[in-house]
């Protein structure tokens, strides 16, 4: 019990230090923040050995615990991956300064002059899984946008993350900024994460990056505003007017490019009118790639006939984010049913229509409520880098504040500054 | 227990109807939405008698319950106030359409064309006190911005609000939109409000308008994203360089224009170097207006000497939002102490510096973290109408999504629409 209280107090103290650092950062200029990113990059490159050594111990422990190789791969850092992180810091420094912009200026009826100016959010907390590159990206994005970062990655990566944070903090001090612009919460256990969610007044926004259960816990527990990210039950809808070869290419890319990512397609919807023409070819190619299909009763014979491994689908399948070589398949009567299916089961992440008919695709774009709606383009493009935003904090699936992939520009707010000569309101 | 379940189910059913209506609204065009506002205005004007009759019964009940006259005044509607509400709908219709704007357009590296387009949030829930004009304003702002409104006002106003909602819903149907674009939750008891806070997946944002306890309940209970509004512990800081007459005018206006509003000043901070010159005059005029001062030990003799009713202030006073003829007064050593005081006790609403020294005011603007920072202007201007936004949903004191007074423009999100010819990601 005392240990629990100690953890909570320690996390709160980190929140307070981050808040103090945020006040300093808010007054820093663009040059200082870019200098900080450059120093962070130099420190990572110069002392990559420390990070790799810590990472080797994390990886050894993870393997000893029997963690799956795909998770170990996410955890693993090597010189190449550290170089990627360093490059990402350089790209962030090259982005335009999101802070201090005059977004609006006007003279009020009283003669007072009003400006709306972009300002950092303050303290940004990010809770994520055992992917150490996120530590670098999140710290870099926060500092670039004038925010202090309160970070907590998965327990498997704790040594790696502590080593990274130590380098980043030393780099901040080197350029005259407080070390606490980056606070890494290394206390173990659920209490530490829960306390982060309750630092109301110290933390301005909490971004959970991870699976649905992490995000649901944050939404339920947090008294700090949350930006929900990442759950993607994405659909590809093949309209009657689709070019069959294009449909095949998009489905294969959206499903098979990477299975474990939130922008991967999880359900294929095919118009009844073109199902017998389109579906066997798609099912055949998916079979070659080892994808199991969960098909409704109309799709099942077409897919099975093409040699695919098929299971009968039920409503449970329409809801699943497989993140694996599985794809739900449903034959729909047309656009209305497809839109209704997406409305019921989608997670508002990325949705695609394959269609040559422009009226159909325009209607799909207007009616489907998602962060990204694609016409004849793979859902795999929903990504900060692909959207030209640089490294991303996450992909927001909510509609408040930011939607879709977001980076520095998503971590600012604004303030109104009103100047006058004694104006009072009648 | 069963009654409680019934209430929850009824509220959820309203949420579902609002969600369906939001889908229709999202596809409506600007003309239809403006026609709806016009029909709502006509209906209110044509059937004002029904609203006034319902209101008279609410007012009679409130008086019978011994409700204070200031609350009764907020509850009361008369032909003039209804005409104000009608005018406010007309002003909303005149605002530019916030929906369907292309906020950004670019061609991605793959050749696909991306647009970022403003879209309604979807369903906006507003929980407020017994002020029936909010029912009209909130419904109008939501419909103007393409959102369905799920509304719940204070129990004292339930007959009035039900009568207003009936008129607004009939008006919506008259122009071919679903009645459920406006759903009024008239079920009594805490369960109804709580259920509104838990309509995750149906409601996109919850805006509590009211006192701190309502807002705190929403933040703790809600699983829907919340926009916090309204708690204002606002400060006026009189810098050494201030023009004394200007300082007097601003303090009187910020404190005494209206006591019960969130943009009223609650604490006066005065630089030590000018306190003996400035404070007696201010205290004397506040005394004339019946304002009690809660003064620290340096301010107390100066204020008392000028004839003001004074009580010694403690830390509790620095935190209070009096919403009454009371003002905390503290003498500070200078800008640093003033900024630190505001940082510790302020609610990030509206903060004012009175100063002729431009370096001092620039530093105040940069360091004070609030929705609105004023230089030589009264805090009373923090208001949607004064800021040129028209009727406001509320005044956000958080930094996520919107800050300060917000209206239609604060109730939109965006979606990315990406069009191509079969682009896949390597």
Automatic annotation (TrEMBL), chains A, B:
A single GO BP term for this record reads:
L-proline biosynthetic process
Q: Name one GO molecular function term.
A: NADP binding
Q: Name one Pfam family in it.
A: Aldedh
- Residue stretches making up the Aldehyde dehydrogenase domain: 10-284
Q: In which pathway does it act?
A: Amino-acid biosynthesis; L-proline biosynthesis; L-glutamate 5-semialdehyde from L-glutamate: step 2/2
Identify the keywords attached in UniProt to this record, alphabetized. Answer: Amino-acid biosynthesis, Cytoplasm, NADP, Oxidoreductase, Proline biosynthesis
Q: Which reaction does it catalyse?
A: L-glutamate 5-semialdehyde + phosphate + NADP(+) = L-glutamyl 5-phosphate + NADPH + H(+)
* Record-linked SUPFAM superfamilies: ALDH-like
Q: Which cellular components does GO assign to this protein?
A: cytoplasm
HAMAP family for this protein: ProA
Q: What does this protein do?
A: Catalyzes the NADPH-dependent reduction of L-glutamate 5-phosphate into L-glutamate 5-semialdehyde and phosphate. The product spontaneously undergoes cyclization to form 1-pyrroline-5-carboxylate.
The entry assigns this protein to a family as follows: Belongs to the gamma-glutamyl phosphate reductase family.
The protein in question is named Gamma-glutamyl phosphate reductase
Instruction: Name the encoding gene, please.
Output: proA
